[in-house]
Amino acid sequence: MSSMRKLGRAAAIGIAASMVLQAPVFAGETEYPIQNMTETEKSADVEDILSGMSLDEKISQMIIPAIRSWDGNKVTDLNEARQLKEALNRHQYGGIILFGDNVTGTGQVVRLVSDLQENNLENEDVSTHIPYLTPVDQEGGIVSRLTTGTRMTGSMAIGATGTYAAQNARLTGEIIGEEMKAVGFNVDFAPDIDVNSNPANPVIGTRSFSDDPDTVSALSAAYAEGLAENNIVATYKHFPGHGDTGTDSHIGTATVEKTYDELQECDLIPFKAAIDNGADMIMTAHITLPLVDDEVTFGDGKTTGYYPATMSKKLITDILRGDLGFDGVVVADALEMDAIRTAKLVPGEEGSVEYGVGIAEKVINAGVDILLIPTDLMNKEAAAYYDDYISGISELVEDGTIPGERIDESVTRILELKEKYGILDPEEVVTDQDEAVRNAEKIVGSDEHHAVEMEIARQAVTMLKNDDDVLPLSDSLSDIVILGRMSGEENTINYAVDNLRADGWIGRDTDITVDYYYQSNDDGSYTFHYSDETKEAVKKAGTVIMLSCTYGSSVLDKGAAQYEAISTVIEDTHAAGGKFVLLSDNLPYDAARYQDADAIILAYMASGLTMDPAKPEAEGADRMAYNANVIAALETIFGGNKCTGTLPVNVPAVEEKEDGTAVYTDSLLYERGFGLE
After folding, report:
1. Domain boundary among 384, 411, 441
2. Which candidate in 211, 333, 585, 622 is catalytic?
3. Is 250 a catalytic residue?
4. Confidence of residue 252 (pLDDT cuts 50, 70, 90)
5. Is 27 a domain residue?
6. Domains contained in the chain, number
7. pTM value?
8. pLDDT per residue over 529-562, tens digit each?
9. 242 annotated active-site
10. How buried is 671 (Cβ within 10 angstroms: 0-12 exposed, 13-18 middle, 19+ buried)?
């Protein structure tokens, strides 16, 4: 097999162990690198800075914009967007968040982050230079912005590693933190500590460690400790818990019908644990809780309802700060999301400064400290929007609608956070770019990091079904078909097959056909792609392996192309006397939908399958953030890896109603902790 496989389980764990600096397993015991200052010293430094800041500077410090593009061009080189440089220096923002559009390679992102900090320090019209927070959503798994880094397995896969889960969470945080630090980021918008108790959740899913709140608490603490080893600020999200929603708040308003007592019994447990363990930053959720919150009147003056948690004083000030005792930095989830932007919550037209300022007033008065992405800073019009936006908030402070004490309170928290992590001193963020690039290229996506990633992926592979011991497949089989979901996934599949064949797990005479079944059309729809050649190969095959990708409730839709494809191929395989293996590569709930499969293997992540895992031949070329989970699952199917993973969530049974629709039931088909060896 590959050099990673030849390393072996014991050797890979040895590498993993060498990366852990004899630190405790759970959070709260880690000594942060700069926590030796006394509170008096910290307060004196921050108070001195705060006293000299203008109101514009204070409000700007509470804002983190995104810079995905400028005038339609992706921002990957700040020197090619000089108008953006000028726009950034019109206000002293608290930070800048980057996304995938800003990242093309390791060296490139090092220079971009460094240029952003240096440009900020060149602003001559400020009372004092305050470096940026540079956050990024680098959870690992399906949420990874560093496309040339080590993707890692994702949180649910970590939860599937059982007795090794705490160690693996710590290692994941450590590797992600080391790679973030190497390129210049200082804040990770992770870990996700939502309890994925709703199988139909469309936005959390495998981003969650488990549907058990105590497991989520323990593993998120270990993950955060790994980040802390590299002086990266951990951000626990999404308060008060996005795990039991059926709507994606990026595109609509999600509602949780739980009482406060019910929240305390599940969703709030990880947040309370994080706070007790010294959490510095928590991100809000744009979800409504009508059984907990107070009813309000929306922007039209007539409609009544409930504000998202981000705008709720009861949830942020009374519960998060009061009941749970959190006094760190609260950052709003992106205010550009539709649950805020299009919901007509306050007066003003969508996209107007009036509407944005109205939202800001509610968010700040709720007790939130950082306004994340009020709008994308993407052109001169957006820069002018921010001028008016900050001016509008200033007017509300001056007339008392927003108390000046609230602004000072938030800015103090932000400055103290920066001081704690060594971000407040301008000299700490200035780098020798050439040296930083050389260092980052040794660290980001390194062989050592990928070896640990593969080991965790192998430990996570879970088997739920294995009728007639169809797995592992014999190397004497003559014909096998492997169907990826989308075109391009053959990159990962063929990589795994080539290594398995080289190491003897697949026989030399075994003919393997690789294809895909989910066709993307120009109109945005998807259809079943099933060529005559592939259909004939399925009929001839002794075994068919098919990847299934489930997000939210998609597996319940009988009209979906994926359901049609998998059902058809199972039927064709069995009609020809073959065996069918379902490789669930994302949420494990599809195991309940395809019980006709002869074997079911879980991998817990669908992202990155189109990236080629083979190391580039070119000197200095970046290695992509590929998908180790599916490689490990294919190894397991062919006998190259022992299956030890266990379910981190319960998998409910699926039943069809009289009208033909399918629903999850209260009956459990597979319980948390189940897994065949």
Report:
1. 441
2. 333
3. yes
4. low
5. no
6. 2
7. 0.92
8. 999 999 999 999 999 999 999 887 778 888 889 9
9. no
10. exposed
